[in-house]
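Duplicate of #3305? Posting structure anyway:
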């Protein structure tokens, strides 16, 4: 049997999904998209999973789309890039953004094209110092996809987003952290340990509260201040009716660690 295109491992309440085409720098194929989507759906449905880590095997996180795949025009047939984006990248980006638990990207090497933007679409990005991010689209006559047009200006501002997208320069992880594009850059030898520590902390918190935090921050971006304040009140009202809030208050007053169970 062939090797799985997505490796799945569990450590306590953290599930790690590893893109597993190292010989092709984990570039996406239709088959790998399917395996990753199924793995994410399974993690979303599994109440024992309280955090998901997405990473890549070998020396890359993900080099984006495999251009030799059908639909990319390399076989002499008409290209169907729009269809590939609609069928694969849009659903993947939306699934990551709607997971009921936090998603952490462990960027172990190059993240290029859609691979970079899928990483940036995760809730927290931790990258090895040797890793880099490349908006490679302009070099093949395309525009950013995988959510890049929405994510980049919000993460780094319009000027940097335009420069990164148009020039396609390699952005070292250390610089990505400096400009606020990712959460942390760590030494290569510390990447696994640092990611496990963050994922472990997230897994102990209230999953519904963390998922709601992601959504309320994203939803507030186009709002004015008054509307954002109103949204905060509505979401707080919903969250305060959950068991996790009652447990959190009881734990605070009892000076003990909270044991969150809602999912």
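Output from current build:
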């Amino acid at each position: 049997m062939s090797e799985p295109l997505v490796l799945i491992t569990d450590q306590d309440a953290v599930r790690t999904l590893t893109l597993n085409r190292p010989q092709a720098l984990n570039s996406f194929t239709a088959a790998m998209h399917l395996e990753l989507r199924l793995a994410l759906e399974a993690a979303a449905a599994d109440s024992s999973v309280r955090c998901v880590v997405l990473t890549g095997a070998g020396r890359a996180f993900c080099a984006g789309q495999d251009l030799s795949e059908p639909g990319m025009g390399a076989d002499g047939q008409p290209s169907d890039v729009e269809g590939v984006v609609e069928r694969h990248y849009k659903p993947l980006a939306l699934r990551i953004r709607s997971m009921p638990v936090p998603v952490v990207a462990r960027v172990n090497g190059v993240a290029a094209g859609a691979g970079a933007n899928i990483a940036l679409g995760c809730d927290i990005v931790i990258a090895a110092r040797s890793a880099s991010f490349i908006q490679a689209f302009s070099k093949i006559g395309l525009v950013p996809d995988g959510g890049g047009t929405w994510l980049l200006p919000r993460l780094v501002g319009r000027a940097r987003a335009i420069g990164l997208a148009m020039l396609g320069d390699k952005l070292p992880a250390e610089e990505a952290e400096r400009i606020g594009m990712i959460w942390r850059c760590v030494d290569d030898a510390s990447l696994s340990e640092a990611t496990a520590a963050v994922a472990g902390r997230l897994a102990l918190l209230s999953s519904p509260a963390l998922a709601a935090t992601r959504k309320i921050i994203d939803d507030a971006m186009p709002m004015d201040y008054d509307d954002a304040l109103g949204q905060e009140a509505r979401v707080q009202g919903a969250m305060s009716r959950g068991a996790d809030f009652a447990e959190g208050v009881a734990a605070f007053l009892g000076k003990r660690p909270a044991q969150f169970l809602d999912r």
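Confirmed duplicate; merging threads. DSSP finds ten helices and ten strands in the chain. The longest strand covers residues 6-11.
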